[in-house]
Amino acid sequence: MRTQRLLLLSNSTHYRSGYLDHAEETIRSFLGPRTRVFFVPHALYDRDAYAARARERFEAMGHALESAHDPGASLDKADAVFVGGGNTFRLLDSLYRGDMLSAIRHAVRGGMPYIGSSAGSIVAGPSIKTTKDMPVIEPPSFEALDLVPFQISPHYLDPDPSSTHMGETQEERIQQYLEENDRCVVGLREGAMLIVEGSSVTLTGVAGARLFAKSRPPMERLPGDRLDDLLQ
Length: 232
Known about the structure:
With 232 residues, the chain is an alpha/beta fold. Helix content is 24%, strand content 24%. The protein has helices at residues 24-31, 47-60, 88-97, 101-109, 119-122, 170-180; strands spanning 5-9, 36-40, 64-67, 80-83, 114-117, 151-156, 185-189, 192-197, 200-205, 209-213, 216-221.
């Protein structure tokens, strides 16, 4: 197996910036001279509009983008794959129905760089059990790409002590996941990203993350921290 390379973003649009603006420098560095990107727009209903938006943005960074739903589109001809955000249930269901799970998994394990944003980051893990999305469609299984052995909970929001909202916090929901499952969970705040290079994991971006594990207190991590233990 070649070295896996993944860039996992919490979000694609950051406060007071445009689509992927906050991640442009990281994406450029991550992709390097690779020019052909295979885009998976299946997390949103209007795939044409989504693909057009992603194509325009990647072309501005010097990369040609082909959408998975384009006639004749082929992952085999790509240098990298980008799985966009949206509804995680819709995305995973489409990956199953389009028989793309095994193809993407094989390509990435063979060395093809993988970029995921939000739902696209969640499906890089073992399952989608840590998504906050509404189950608008029922996929055949919650099992996902399993490219990394930990779960991701993007758009992580810290509890607000001044809020009068009495519903569960994101931290409480992650703790509920850990009551039934034994996988580490990374709560990625807005603007945070993970870079996975073989046996190393680096937290980068403009925000930190909160790490959760069964029977252990949550741990706070900052941009620049190495999180290699997540791959154990």
